[in-house]
């Protein structure tokens, strides 16, 4: 019985041992798998932590950079917006200032032009009074004084015309066609110390619309040459005729301009540097600016250079062929003898009779004596810069009661001893100055 029980219990024990061994092995295997999984988990957690740490630092850096970039962009945009607003305000303020300056410039130019025109008109009136007095008074001293007054009036008119031109006005009335020689003669008659000017002759003829501008231009250049040269020197005017036109050359022996002054003058005359009427200052120099305005409007050219052959300055006025015409077929007869005294003749349109003309006679000693005679003016015709032929000397002329003038060695020439060409030039300028002044009241504005 016991043996049977053992045989029954043995398989149970073997089965129990087998099950126990299987369970143990299975537990060990599960334990190993769990340990492996835990190791993987720890490795994953470590890797995750390391990755998060690394990428977090990168993310923080990127975020910081993005925030900084955004801040900079915002600041840049803000600065640009502020700058644009400031620029717009500045542009608006500048536009307002320019508009105010333009209005002030226009008002100033209009005031200067009006004042200059008034002075020119008053000068013309004074010239008419002097002309009437010249016809009325026969006393030599009075006649000489009136001549000097009239010459000073013509200089005043020329200066006033310069202001009119700089402020946008026209130089005066339009003349008929004139020879270049007459243009220069009319210009010389409008300057001080005209006795010191020696001018040549040219046969070409200038169109009518540029006669007065050229007279004013040459007068301004000659006056400038006379002012800056010694009183004992001469200013020479010559002509160069070329294929493209005629050039008037004005040479002085005075103080020459330095390099900076020459360049400044060239820029003004060439129109490269404008002259603002508001910037002329308390002692304005309007000679070159007025010439530049005429150059721009009428098409001739003016240059200055130095030193010339005399150590002074040379001014050149180039008149292109478009402003020239064929010379008139008029032969001007030269007097047989040189006159010692030439009395200016009044403008032909005044239809007056010169009762105070003085001629001279030669004596055996070579000195001159004067006598009075009456010269009747021709009928009214177109005005001209060139006066009627001056009275000449005749060997058989009777001597007058007036004393003989000093010989040619006198230190300073007077009106009685003026050279014929100089007296004619003075009268040309006197006549043209009065006519130009008479037309100044109806000038139109121009951009200068």
TrEMBL record:
What Gene3D superfamilies does the record point to? Histidine kinase-like ATPase, C-terminal domain (3.30.565.10)
What sections of the sequence does the record tag as coiled-coil? Answer: 34-106
Q: What is its EC number?
A: 2.7.13.3
Name the catalysed reactions: ATP + protein L-histidine = ADP + protein N-phospho-L-histidine
User: What is the recorded name of this protein?
Assistant: histidine kinase
Q: Which organism is it from?
A: Nocardia huaxiensis
Provide the Gene Ontology terms for cellular component. plasma membrane
| Source organism superkingdom | Bacteria
Q: Which UniProt keywords apply?
A: Coiled coil, Kinase, Phosphoprotein, Transferase
List the GO biological process terms. phosphorelay signal transduction system
Q: Could you confirm whether the keyword Coiled coil appears in this record?
A: yes
């Amino acid at each position: 019985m016991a043996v049977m029980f053992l045989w029954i219990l043995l398989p149970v024990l073997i089965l129990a041992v087998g099950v126990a061994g299987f369970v143990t092995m299975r537990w060990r295997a599960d334990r190993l798998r769990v340990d492996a999984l835990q190791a993987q988990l720890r490795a994953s957690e470590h890797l995750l932590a390391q990755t998060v740490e690394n990428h977090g630092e990168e993310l923080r850096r990127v975020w910081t950079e993005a925030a900084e970039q955004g801040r900079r962009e915002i600041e840049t945009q803000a600065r640009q917006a502020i700058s644009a607003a400031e620029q717009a305000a500045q542009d608006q303020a500048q536009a307002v200032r320019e508009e105010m300056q333009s209005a002030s410039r226009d008002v100033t130019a209009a005031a200067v032009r009006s004042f200059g025109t008034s002075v020119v008109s008053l000068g013309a009136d004074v010239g008419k009074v002097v002309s009437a007095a010249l016809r009325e008074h026969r006393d030599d001293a009075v006649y000489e004084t009136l001549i000097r007054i009239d010459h000073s009036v013509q200089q005043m008119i020329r200066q006033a015309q310069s202001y009119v031109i700089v402020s946008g006005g026209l130089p005066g009335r339009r003349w008929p066609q004139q020879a270049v020689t007459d243009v220069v003669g009319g210009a010389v008659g409008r300057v001080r110390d005209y006795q010191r000017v020696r001018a040549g002759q040219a046969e070409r003829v200038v169109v009518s619309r540029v006669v007065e501008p050229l007279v004013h231009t040459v007068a301004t250049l000659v006056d400038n040459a006379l002012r800056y040269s010694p009183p004992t020197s001469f200013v020479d005017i010559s002509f160069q005729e070329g294929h493209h036109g005629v050039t008037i050359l004005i040479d002085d022996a005075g103080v020459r301009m330095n390099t900076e002054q020459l360049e400044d003058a060239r820029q003004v005359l060439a129109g490269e540097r404008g002259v603002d009427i508001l910037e002329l200052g308390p002692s304005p120099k309007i000679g070159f600016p007025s010439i530049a305005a005429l150059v721009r409007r009428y098409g001739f050219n003016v240059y200055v250079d130095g030193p010339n052959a005399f150590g002074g300055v040379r001014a050149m006025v180039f008149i292109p062929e478009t402003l020239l015409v064929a010379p008139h077929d008029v032969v001007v007869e030269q007097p047989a003898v040189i006159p010692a005294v030439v009395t200016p003749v009044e403008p032909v349109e005044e239809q007056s009779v010169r009762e105070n003309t003085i001629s001279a006679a030669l004596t055996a000693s070579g000195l001159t004596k004067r006598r009075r005679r009456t010269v009747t003016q021709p009928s009214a015709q177109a005005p001209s810069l060139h006066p009627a032929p001056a009275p000449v000397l005749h060997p058989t002329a009777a001597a007058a009661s007036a004393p003989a003038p000093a010989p040619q060695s006198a230190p300073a020439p007077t009106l009685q001893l003026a050279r014929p060409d100089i007296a004619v030039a003075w009268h040309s300028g006197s006549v043209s100055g009065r006519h130009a002044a008479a037309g100044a009241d109806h000038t139109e504005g121009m951009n200068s």
